[in-house]
Write the structure tokens for this entry.
Amino acid sequence: MNARVSNPSRRQFIVGTTAVGTGLALGLQFPLFMHAAEAATTAPEIGAWVVIEPDDTVVVRVVRSEMGQGTITGLAQLVAEELECDWKKVRTEYPTPGESVRRNRVWGEFSTGGSRGIRTSELYVRKGGAAARMMLLQAAADQWGVPVAQCVAANSVITHAPSGRTTTFGKMSVAASKLTVPTEIPLKDPKDWKVIGQPLDRIDGVADKVTGKQVYAIDLKLPGMLIANIRECPVFGGKVKSFDPTQAAGMKGVRKVVQVGDSAVAVVADTFWQAKSAMDKVAIVWDEGPNAKVSSASIKAMLEEGLTAQQAFVGNQRGDIVAAQKNAASKLESVYFYPFLNHAPMEPMNATAKWTPERCEAWVPTQDGEASLAAVIAASGLPGEKCDVYKVNLGGGFGRRGAFQDYTTQAVNIAKQMPGVPIKLIWTREEDMTQGRYHPIMMCKLTGTFDDKKNLTGVHMRLSGQSILASVRPAVVEQQKGRDPLVFQGVFDGGEHGFGYTFPNLLIDHAMRNTHIPPGFWRGVNVNQNAVFIESFMDELADAAGVDPVEFRRKFLAESPRNLAVLDAVAQGIGWTKPAPPGVFRGVAQMKAFGSYVAAACEISVKDGKEVKVHRIVAATDPGYAVNPAQIKRQVAGSFVYGLSALFMEECTVKDGRIEQTNFHDFPSMRIAQMPKVEALIIQGGGKEWGGVGEPTICVAAPAVLNAFYRATGKRIRTVPLKNSDITLV
């Protein structure tokens, strides 16, 4: 494979500009945006690393995780563009978070989530490539005794333009490594890009994935490794009251039965099947705690109360909504519901750990190496300098493997009970389904007001439901005086999740209602339900006003030209102003999320009022700049699999305090035959803002289909998934 997995015995990493063997290692340091207090004490830095080997191989050190979205290919393209290297000789390598900590966080943030892989790395990654090129050119100019301005680089070859003399990056790497890193690093104008913007093949070994050759964390093998399987209390907040390992302990291959923390029991054996089979024989008595009586019905009742509660946190406000409602000639009110959802990556949670009194190492399929390292340090009982984490390929993440490192903590806790032995912990699918960190449950009450001429005068959007940050990052909520700003994704007042519509009067607020079911950053996060809420309601408002849904949106997007541009693009692409084929109905939606502007228009048909066929989706994305258009189109299509599966068939329900869904038979994903044709349009709005790609477009597919369903049947569905309304995807 092209991507290298770091191993502590393979390479020592260097800070600054120094020779590695006979090649060039370039480290650039740029400030990481942090709170002032943190910056003052730790002075963290982001480093963009380039290694050039004698054979002209360029190794780009990346800290973002590759989990199918193509991030490391895009990062490599950014470097290659400025470096002017031979793309065919570009490779990538993962530094470890332990090395980064020991170097004062020279590689900066390791987190891959929030569609940040490219957009928050692009500047220092491009500067890393540009600085390396400048140093290579200077080294060649010094050798030839000519002005550096007469030298140019292309395809890993340096040419002295007047004489035609040439040399290679590999030959100049040692000399370049002895030069001072430039402080002024000009970057190319986007109009001069040759690599950025090209649909280049992926760099992370697609063939190996197809043939099964690629090693994911669940495949990892280490000498002397044993396998662990675990069972945690099915009610969140519950504990182990007692357990009897007698039957399991005598089974073939079983090495040990151990308690893990206060809420789980694990079996360690020679193979996974032996561990799993023995785990089934461990007699566990649970103390399920106070949450054992919680149900979906009791949670929903709590959310319904929040819809009319007096206290709520304001996320967006304009004008006077109270006066608008008081003076309204008519009102329109609707209530929507969005359920818990599991990430359900194909590779269940797993991690490998080896603990001794002197050192603890873990091999983790992680979206955030620093979070994994923090978990290892905390669980190991060892100082940070005696711990490290090695990133292994992820079989899907979708947010589950980022901030949440419960599986890493468990692996270390088990390994501590068998010192010196590598322990690979593998969850069953059932454990993965019932011990998730779920998409937050949410209800929404929307009220629109009109004057006597059916002009919209105001919108009130009341959200009632969970806060992810209150559970995961309570310090942020505390700083916001109790408010979770993440709840307002897509409808916030400005920023990367800014609301595009300009209504005369507006109030968007949130009644926080948290449950014992732990919430998590599920791909697309809160913009998914917020798009369903506001974009479905926009169609309701348009119908009440007697205006075409696209024209109605255009009126209120007049001050948001990029929102308007993606809306117009999908309307034109779907042929909105032309008659649809017989039996075919159209819907539309638009949003801004993760710095990108997105819209979708769909065509569906409905049989017997309940069998839906989504024929076609035209999707427009404006991420500012497109690094790899082919990969963007794949991400858009893939995101619709996620979004449409959730719309039609996925939900997690609660009974007796526990999640009821246990496998893909009751938490299914759409099939290939159900997948519509996706026409992905890329609009490059440019400017200083770089938007994300992997998450934004998920949100617009669902409301577009819901709006089309209303046009087809006259029924407005406000509760998802649609299976609960006896509606199926065919």
User: Anything to note?
Assistant: The chain has three domains: 3-200, 217-289+349-426, 307-340+438-729.
